[in-house]
């Protein structure tokens, strides 16, 4: 079955009892058994719920995986993967990381005896030099946020495999529509389904997807034991979003690319970061590893903090908001918003300077989006 078909049909068989074409949402915490210990495979909804199972089946197919487990948020999914580590184990990650993941690594894992070392470059050698006998996990986010650098999943996975280290890829930005990390050698995929997968900025969720079926057991054990399970309505809404994932990602990519080209070289813009632009440092890798540059465009404005702040509050269609991946366009000033918790000197060293703007380009008519950005540029 092809990708777009799987998005609509996997986990979505008509209800065998009523024939309802759209399967019912199973609002139940518990399940009536035939006899003690004998039921239909469900006991209590923290462990499993049919609406959740349907979503997990769909995610498994979309990521070319053998199993998936869904969570109440992307951060809960991250915690589940980290639960496989023990005190004394360590992680290697790239420095330009989702802020919430960095907070987990530094403020939850580190005090519990699991240290993270951060690669300062995107090359395989940058990761390799940080590996030691305690390294048990390499954590990749690609494209990175907010600078949109790419990391070669296949090359890093080969290195990791030769050292007996697991690789987890946060595939939130690309989604399986644009990038399939398990097929490139990764072991775990983590998603914030909150973003493109659900796609409408109205439900928080997460997932862990694995290549080797044996890896799902500890994840399911963690879910059952620690909680963090999504409710049935959240699973339903996420699944409903997935049905249009291929269409939406195509539209996000087309609009983002058009905006990136439109703004490149424009007065007031120092540079535009987008993976498939001719001058992007990782363009060749983008063409090899992804099928589309995604919906995020980052900009460096001419001017400092105040001018950038004025630009961000002057758009009308681009809402000034954190998060990304919904059908509506958002604008974010990382220095003041998503990345404000990183000290300024660290931020500057990483390239997250005061004049950086991140756009989550939605699927509105691109002419309206261009006009909106033009007016904001004029307002600086
Ligand atoms: C939002 C996000 C997360 C965290 O997901 P939540 O659903 O907000 O908990 C993790 N990784 C990336 C790349 C994200 O954008």
Unreliable spans are none
Shape descriptor: globular
Question: What top-tier CATH class of the largest domain fits best?
Answer: Alpha Beta
Overall mean pLDDT score? 96
- In the CATH hierarchy, the architecture of the largest domain is 3-Layer(aba) Sandwich
Strand order across the largest sheet: 1-7-6-5-4-2-3
Instruction: List all distinct small molecules, including ions and cofactors, that are bound in this structure.
Output: pyridoxal-5'-phosphate
Number of strands: 12
Our count of domains comes out at 2
Sketch the topology as an H/E string, one letter per element.
Answer: HHEHEHEHEHEHEEHHHEHEHEEHEH
Q: In DSSP terms, counting alpha (H) and pi (I) runs of 4 or more, how many helices?
A: 14
Alpha-carbon distance between the two ends: 50 Å
CATH superfamily of the largest domain: Type I PLP-dependent aspartate aminotransferase-like (Major domain)
Radius of gyration: 21 Å
Please give the largest β-sheet: 7 strands, mixed
Fraction in helix: 25-40%
SS content category: alpha/beta
Summary, kept brief:
This protein has 380 residues and is α/β, with parallel strands linked by helices. Helices cover 36% and strands 15% of the residues.
Task: Map the helices and strands.
Blueprint: H1 3-9, H2 50-62, E1 67-71, H3 74-82, E2 90-94, H4 99-109, E3 115-119, H5 124-128, E4 135-141, H6 153-162, E5 166-170, H7 175-178, E6 188-192, E7 206-210, H8 216-226, H9 232-242, H10 245-263, E8 269-273, H11 283-289, E9 296-301, H12 305-314, E10 319-320, E11 330-332, H13 344-350, E12 356-360, H14 366-379
Helix pairs in contact: 1-2, 2-9, 3-4, 12-14
Bound molecules: pyridoxal-5'-phosphate.
Residues 73-75, 98, 100-101, 141, 145, 170, 172-173, 192, 194-195, 204, 206 line the site of pyridoxal-5'-phosphate.
């Amino acid at each position: 079955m092809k990708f777009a078909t799987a998005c609509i049909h996997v986990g979505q068989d008509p209800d065998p009892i009523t024939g309802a074409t759209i399967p019912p949402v199973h609002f139940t915490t518990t399940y009536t058994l035939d006899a003690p210990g004998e039921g239909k495979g469900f006991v209590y909804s923290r462990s499993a719920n049919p609406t959740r199972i349907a979503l997990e089946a769909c995610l498994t197919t979309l990521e070319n995986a053998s199993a998936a487990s869904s969570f109440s948020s992307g951060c809960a999914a991250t915690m589940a993967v980290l639960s496989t580590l023990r005190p004394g184990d360590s992680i290697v990650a790239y420095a330009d990381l989702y802020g919430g993941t960095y907070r987990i690594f530094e403020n939850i894992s580190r005090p519990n005896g699991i240290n993270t070392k951060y690669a300062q470059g995107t090359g395989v050698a940058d990761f390799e030099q940080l590996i030691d006998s305690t390294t048990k996990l390499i954590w990749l986010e690609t494209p990175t946020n907010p600078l949109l650098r790419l990391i070669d999943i296949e090359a890093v996975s080969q290195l990791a495999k030769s050292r007996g280290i697991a690789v987890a890829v946060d595939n939130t930005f690309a989604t399986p529509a644009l990038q399939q990390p398990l097929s490139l050698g990764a072991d775990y995929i983590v998603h914030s389904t909150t973003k493109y997968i659900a796609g409408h900025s109205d439900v928080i969720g997460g997932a862990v997807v694995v290549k080797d079926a044996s890896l799902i057991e500890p994840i399911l054990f963690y879910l059952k034991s620690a909680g963090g399970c999504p409710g049935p309505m959240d699973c339903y809404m996420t699944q409903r979003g997935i049905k249009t994932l291929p269409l939406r990602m195509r539209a996000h990519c087309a609009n983002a690319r058009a905006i990136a080209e439109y703004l490149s070289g424009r007065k007031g813009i120092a540079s535009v970061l987008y993976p498939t632009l001719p001058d992007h440092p990782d363009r060749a890798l983008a063409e090899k590893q992804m099928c589309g540059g995604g919906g995020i465009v980052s900009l460096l404005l001419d001017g400092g903090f105040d001018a950038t702040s004025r630009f961000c509050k002057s758009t009308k269609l681009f809402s000034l908001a954190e998060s990304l991946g919904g059908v509506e366009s958002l604008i974010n000033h990382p220095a003041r918003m998503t990345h404000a918790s990183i000290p300024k000197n660290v931020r500057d060293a990483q390239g997250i300077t005061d004049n950086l703007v991140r756009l989550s380009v939605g699927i509105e008519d691109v002419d309206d989006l261009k006009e909106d950005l033009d007016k904001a540029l004029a307002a600086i």
